[in-house]
């Protein structure tokens, strides 16, 4: 304990320092303390451990958890990395770092929901140290809402903050190294253990947690592209309008199949995201989008169109458009190109699978591919029909199952086709298939259900697939 | 006959398990609105054609969609008879599952266009289950729809008319393929290998057409058919038919081995031998017809190759008796009698002109609404004619006024005789064989030809027929002015046919555009004018040996 004068002088000094300097100071002090500790012997060295809990949607939280894990390991920590889905408040291991993103409407991401609800309803108190990192988007009102609430609630149930909660915008990548340093600093203080200045400096060698290289990586640094082609894919009798838009760009923009493009609206509203429907390897310097014109009824009975889809539908060849890449680390082709894949992508959900197939074609991959597609009517709503026909002919697409809901008396959807093909789906899964689902949330839930049924008596159930990273969803 | 290399279609037929092919699978295959390749041929035997909207091919490609495939369904309607109730159901079905425009063909039946694959089976099933109608053998290498004159003026008409249905049924394929695939019939023990004494498993080398005429009316264009049956009525009794063989339209541009031929009348058969005679003519064609080159497969070529005498001997041998000498007959009219007519039983009948057989509402001529209204009265039945029109039949004297009122209400536009006697096939945008427009173009050309008639003060009518390709489905080779599509906007001009359908026309110009057609006719009308009150335009050209 410092006496009053010491404390006053310390506070005076501290008031002149910035965050980075404070962190350095912590390390410096730790170093001073650490150097006098015996290197071996019957010391009461506390085991340095760290528990990192993450809730990820597009893999960024998980990636950051990995970066922190690496850095901590480098400092001699034993690190556990656990998804939110596997922890309840009563199970929190101290010290704990919580990393979570927030959905646009302030809601926790899918993976965080269970923990979040348990936390809010937790009546007991526990003793633990923690830090929270939130990933969000300042263009939304409830910026990092989930992370903020998590911090608040963790404090309520007795947790002690190692360091102040960190809430980062879309350009979070630039701030991660400093945050990792801060956390490690806080942990060092907790464990009062040895650390060298060089150890802290190692943090700076941590690779930037940038999600993609090149330009156009977030809302804050969009790039300009040009519309080179736009066509309504639906035919005359359809009640839908789905626009295939090809955007070309000259900047060094990089994206992978499974990533989305964020469209900057001329009016400055929150950017909207669309799964990219092409692979750079097949179409360098371009990205393709599959955009459904969203329609709604106005209170006065008149009909209106979606803000962004309306804007996109009216674009003409030659128009300029601002966009950025929103990467999705999770929704990716398997590294092993011989792995079978099952795509479930009705309507515009087909978009990323067009990119996947193009990529597989460019790779010369020999993995089997099975597409489940659905739409109202075959005659006018079969998005990219001629492309799928030629992939099927070439053998790149191994199987295709179609559900055209309005083409017969009873409505048939992709979920029904999955159910009908249960034994074959199961066989593919047993062969190691990765299942991808893209489209509406409710369809995603139905697919969850069907797969659970299908895998009922199987050695790999749905949770297993999820853990293995073999059941991936991009739903909205 | 050498059997070196049979045409591909022959192989498809023989391997099809009596016309089943993979039609079931084709219908279930959702990735395309088309059939598997080989089933395209087979579905014709079921009365359907696979088509696509040719106008929209580029746009569909731009949308990364395959061609806009759809199906045409042609009904089997011997003698063209349909009830009012059936008409209402079919019109509704056409709205729901097709284009909404029913097409009356040139052979006394109707077809629906624009039926997409996903509703094809339900549509055909509906025909069968609710109306007892089918499309069996309406297309394909089989006997097609059997025609009969629509004029019911003789006491013997019902007896002669009944032969259309009898012949149709006698010559139907024995396969149950249609019933299994479209009507959900359980396959019988011999499914796929039904014994068919007439068609065997190879069917005919080509299409086969039969028509019945009762002189003096040749509204069925008897001599355009493979078999023509001229009803002979002696002493108020219907005794039998003069039989004509070897009529056929179809040519191929620039192939001199192909030609249109009129039927040759070879003898008289008593009525009770009619079915046998028709059967045996088909059997001869089955055994001797050219199966290597489909362009030379029709009965007309078989007969000319064999020699007519040889053919006749073969027929008599198979029948077990000789044909009697041809009995006298005379045709005096080919077009349908216009307006009201009464049959001996007291019923009234009325021929309704339908431009190019397309049942749709035009300005001042709402024939679609008219037919619906007529059908709803229940006071008339329908009979489709050989000129793409429809006759309202069996109208009682009491109901005549009601129908007349509807006629006055709906059918106001006065079409010129040139229009009412003209015929055009469908051609674009659905027929895959079309080289040029037909039904979408002929009306406007007729306006201009009428202009030339007015210019030269020619009031006598002229038969004009246009087809989009040389197959000649609208029988252009028997017209006074025939226009056979060669390329987009260009037609072969054929002149000199007679007015009754008893003389073929000849090519006057191999290829003309509209300007060429009109200037040619202008010059000819000028020459014809002095003779116009004495003879038809066709006879004039023929007599003058101008071509």
Provide key terms for this protein.
heterodimer, A: about 475 residues, alpha/beta, six-stranded parallel sheet, six-stranded antiparallel sheet, 15 helices, B: about 550 residues, alpha+beta, five-stranded antiparallel sheet, 17 helices, globular
Q: Could you please describe the fold and organization of this structure?
A:
The complex is a heterodimer of chains A (about 475) and B (about 550). Chain A is of the alpha/beta class and about 475 residues long. Chain A has helices at about 5-15, 20-35, 60-75, 115-120, 145-155, 175-190, 195-200, 305-315, 350-365, 380, 385-395, 415-420, 420-430, 440-455, 460-465; strands at about 50-55, 80-85, 95-100, 130-135, 160, 165-170, 225-230, 240-250, 260-265, 270-275, 285-290, 295, 305, 320-325, 340-345, 370-375, 400-405, 435-440, 470-475. In chain A, strand 15, helix 9 and strand 16 (about 370-375) form a beta-alpha-beta unit. In chain A, helix 2 (about 20-35) packs parallel to helix 6 (about 175-190) and helix 12 (about 415-420) packs parallel to helix 14 (about 440-455). Chain A is globular. The relative contact order of chain A is 0.09. With about 550 residues, chain B is α+β, with helices and mostly antiparallel strands. The chains are: A alpha/beta (about 475), B alpha+beta (about 550).
List the helices and strands and how they pair.
The complex is a heterodimer of chains A (476) and B (547).
Chain A: H1 4-15, H2 19-35, E1 49-55, H3 60-74, E2 78-83, E3 96-101, H4 113-120, E4 128-135, H5 145-156, E5 159-161, E6 166-168, H6 176-191, H7 197-202, E7 223-232, E8 242-248, E9 260-264, E10 272-275, E11 286-292, E12 295-297, E13 303-305, H8 307-313, E14 320-326, E15 341-344, H9 351-363, E16 369-375, H10 378-381, H11 385-394, E17 399-404, H12 414-420, H13 422-430, E18 434-439, H14 441-454, H15 462-467, E19 471-475
Parallel strand pairs in A: 1-2, 1-3, 3-4, 4-5, 4-6, 15-16, 15-18, 16-17, 18-19
Antiparallel strand pairs in A: 7-8, 7-14, 8-11, 9-10, 9-14, 12-13
Chain B: H1 8-14, H2 23-28, H3 37-45, E1 48-52, H4 57-62, E2 69-74, E3 81-82, H5 84-97, E4 102-104, E5 110-115, H6 120-131, E6 147-148, H7 157-170, H8 177-183, E7 210-213, E8 227-234, E9 237-245, E10 264-270, H9 274-288, H10 299-306, H11 308-319, E11 339-342, E12 348-352, E13 358-359, E14 361-362, E15 365-366, H12 367-377, E16 381-384, E17 390-395, H13 397-410, H14 417-420, E18 423-424, H15 442-455, E19 464-467, E20 481-487, E21 490-495, E22 506-512, H16 514-528, H17 537-544
Helix pairs in contact in B: 5-6, 5-12, 9-11, 10-11, 12-13, 15-16
């Amino acid at each position: 304990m410092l006496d009053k004068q010491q404390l006053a002088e310390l506070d005076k000094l501290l008031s002149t320092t910035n965050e980075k300097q404070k962190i350095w100071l912590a390390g410096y002090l730790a170093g001073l303390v650490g150097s006098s500790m015996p290197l071996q012997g019957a010391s009461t060295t506390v085991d340095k451990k760290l528990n990192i809990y993450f809730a990820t949607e597009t893999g960024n939280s998980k990636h950051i958890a990995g970066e922190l894990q690496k850095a901590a390991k480098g400092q001699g920590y034993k690190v556990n990395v656990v998804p939110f889905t596997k922890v309840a408040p009563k199970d929190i291991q101290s010290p704990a770092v919580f990393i979570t993103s927030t959905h646009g409407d302030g809601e926790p991401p899918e993976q965080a929901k269970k923990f979040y609800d348990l936390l809010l309803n937790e009546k007991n108190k526990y003793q633990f140290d923690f830090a929270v990192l939130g990933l969000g988007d300042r263009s939304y009102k409830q910026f990092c809402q989930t992370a903020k609430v998590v911090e608040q609630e963790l404090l309520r149930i007795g947790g002690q903050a190692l360091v102040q909660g960190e809430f980062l915008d879309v350009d979070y990548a630039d701030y991660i190294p400093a945050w990792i340093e801060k956390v490690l600093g806080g942990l060092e203080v907790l464990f009062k253990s040895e650390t060298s200045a060089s150890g802290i400096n190692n943090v700076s060698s941590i690779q930037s947690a940038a999600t993609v290289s090149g330009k156009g990586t977030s809302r804050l640094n969009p790039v300009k592209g040009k519309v080179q082609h736009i066509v309504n894919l639906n035919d005359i009798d359809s009640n839908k309008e789905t626009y295939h838009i090809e955007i070309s760009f000259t900047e060094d923009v990089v994206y992978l199949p499974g990533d989305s493009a964020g469209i900057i609206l001329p009016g400055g509203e929150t950017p909207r995201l669309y799964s990219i429907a092409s692979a750079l390897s097949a179409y360098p310097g371009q990205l393709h989008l599959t955009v459904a014109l969203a329609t709604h009824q106005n209170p006065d009975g008149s009909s209106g169109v979606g803000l962004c889809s309306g804007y996109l539908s009216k674009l003409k060849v030659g128009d300029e458009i601002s966009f950025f890449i929103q990467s999705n680390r999770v929704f990716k082709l398997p590294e092993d190109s011989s792995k079978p894949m099952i795509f479930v992508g009705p309507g515009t959900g087909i978009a990323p699978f067009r990119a996947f197939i193009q990529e597989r074609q460019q790779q010369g991959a020999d993995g089997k591919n099975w597409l489940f597609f659905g739409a109202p009517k075959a005659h006018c709503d079969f998005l990219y029909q001629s492309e799928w026909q030629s992939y099927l002919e070439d053998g790149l697409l191994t199987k295709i199952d179609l559900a055209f809901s309005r083409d017969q008396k009873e409505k048939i959807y992709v979920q029904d086709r999955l159910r009908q093909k249960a034994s074959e789906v199961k066989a593919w899964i047993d062969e190691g298939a990765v299942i991808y689902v893209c489209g509406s949330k409710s369809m995603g839930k139905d697919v969850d259900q069907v797969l659970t049924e299908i895998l009922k008596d199987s050695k790999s159930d749905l949770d297993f697939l999820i853990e293995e990273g073999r059941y991936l969803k991009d739903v909205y | 006959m050498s059997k070196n290399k049979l045409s591909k279609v022959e192989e498809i037929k023989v391997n099809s398990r009596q016309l089943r092919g993979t039609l079931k699978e084709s219908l279930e295959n959702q990735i395309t609105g088309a059939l598997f390749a080989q089933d395209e041929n087979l579905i014709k035997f079921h009365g359907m054609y696979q088509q696509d909207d040719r106008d929209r091919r580029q746009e569909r490609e731009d949308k990364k969609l395959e061609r806009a495939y759809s199906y045409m369904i042609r009904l089997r309607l011997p003698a063209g008879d349909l009830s009012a109730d059936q008409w209402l159901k079919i019109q509704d079905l056409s709205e729901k599952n097709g284009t909404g425009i029913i097409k009356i063909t040139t052979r006394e039946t109707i077809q629906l266009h624009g039926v997409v694959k996903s509703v094809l089976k339900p549509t055909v099933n509906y025909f069968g289950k609710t109306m007892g109608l089918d499309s069996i053998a309406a297309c394909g290498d089989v006997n097609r729809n059997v025609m009969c004159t629509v004029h019911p003026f003789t006491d013997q008409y019902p007896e002669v008319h009944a032969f259309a249905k009898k012949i149709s049924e006698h010559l139907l394929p024995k396969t149950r393929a249609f019933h299994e695939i479209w009507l959900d019939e359980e396959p019988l023990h011999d499914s796929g290998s039904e014994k068919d004494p007439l068609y065997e498993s190879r069917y005919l080398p080509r299409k086969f057409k039969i028509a019945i005429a009762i002189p003096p009316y040749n509204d069925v264009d008897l001599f355009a058919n493979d078999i023509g049956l001229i009803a002979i009525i002696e002493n108020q009794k219907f005794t039998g038919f003069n039989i004509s063989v070897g009529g056929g339209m179809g040519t191929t541009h620039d192939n001199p081995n192909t030609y249109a031929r009129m039927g040759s009348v070879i003898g008289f058969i008593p009525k009770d031998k009619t079915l046998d005679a028709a059967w045996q003519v088909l059997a001869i064609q089955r055994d001797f017809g050219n199966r290597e080159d489909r362009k030379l497969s029709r009965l007309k070529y078989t007969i000319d190759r064999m020699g007519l005498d040889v053919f006749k001997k073969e027929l008599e041998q198979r029948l077990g008796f000789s044909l009697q000498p041809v009995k006298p007959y005379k045709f005096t009219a080919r077009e349908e009698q216009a307006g009201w007519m009464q049959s001996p039983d007291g019923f009234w009948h009325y021929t309704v002109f339908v431009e190019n057989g397309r049942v749709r509402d035009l300005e001042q001529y709402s024939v679609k609404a008219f037919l619906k209204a007529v059908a709803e009265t229940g006071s008339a039945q329908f009979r489709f004619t050989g000129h793409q029109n429809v006759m309202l039949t069996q109208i009682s004297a009491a109901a005549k006024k009601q129908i007349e009122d509807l006629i006055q209400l709906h059918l106001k536009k006065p079409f010129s005789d040139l229009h009412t006697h003209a015929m055009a096939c469908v051609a674009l945008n659905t027929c895959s064989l079309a080289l040029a427009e037909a039904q979408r173009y002929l009306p406007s050309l007729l306006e201009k030809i009428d202009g030339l008639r007015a210019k030269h003060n020619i009031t006598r009518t002229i038969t004009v027929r246009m087809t989009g390709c040389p197959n000649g489905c609208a029988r252009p080779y028997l017209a006074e002015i025939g226009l056979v599509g060669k390329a987009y906007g260009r037609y072969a001009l054929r002149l000199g046919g007679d007015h009754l359908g008893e003389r073929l026309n000849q090519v006057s110009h191999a290829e003309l555009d509209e300007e060429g057609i009109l200037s040619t006719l202008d010059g000819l009308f000028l020459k014809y004018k002095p003779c116009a009150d004495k003879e038809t335009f066709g006879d004039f050209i023929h007599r003058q040996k101008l071509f």
